[in-house]
# Entry
Amino acid sequence: MLAKRIIPCLDIKDGRTVKGVNFVNLRDAGDPVELGAKYSLAGADELVFLDITATHERRKTLADLARDIARHLNIPFTIGGGIRSLTDVDVLLDAGADKVSINSAAVRRPELIDELAYAFGNQFVVVAVDAKFVDREWYVHLNGGRIKTAHRLFDWVGEAQERGAGEILFTSMDHDGTKAGFATEALARMSDQLSIPIIASGGAGNKEHFADVFTRGKADAGLAASIFHFGEVGIGELKTYLAGEGIPVRPVG
# Structure
């Protein structure tokens, strides 16, 4: 079994790391570059940086951030926010990002996944999916959860894989920031359906939740924000616990 990855996520608004509950009530969590460097030293396997206020006009700002991050990190990182074209991705990869995350733009124009996979390779393309459980069905949502789409979650991730996505980053909006555990049933179903890696996001509150998402949820990576940002669980502590539970993780240091 491949080692499970621990991935801190840094949501960025106006140059600062923020964290909320169910995508609202954001509070400041620090400088993203400083936090990223700290997590790198602490033993994180990868990092994800998502500019939640990114626009086309701010593409240069995101590239500058990627460049700054790359100078301070020695682990892979994914960056996303407002990516809509091959040019956007080219700029970010050139600035030092290892992968890019696309979300709303892929839902609105699915051909973007094909184009990016063909131009750069599917290993560079992470399709992020935000979903809510509505009327006994998971539906994909856009714009920080404000727009419900007609896309059913499992149909959409299947299409994303077929079009060339290298990974799926699935966030359960119902679980996000609640610290009540991941959406393990949905993740397990997704894992059985797909052949590409799945990053689980939304709901991490303690070490046991990670063990649960890697066993019952069958996820390849566990992503979290607030428990790392506010010192509730240390990455080294988490990895020691997971190894003790028989879950393969990369050693710290």
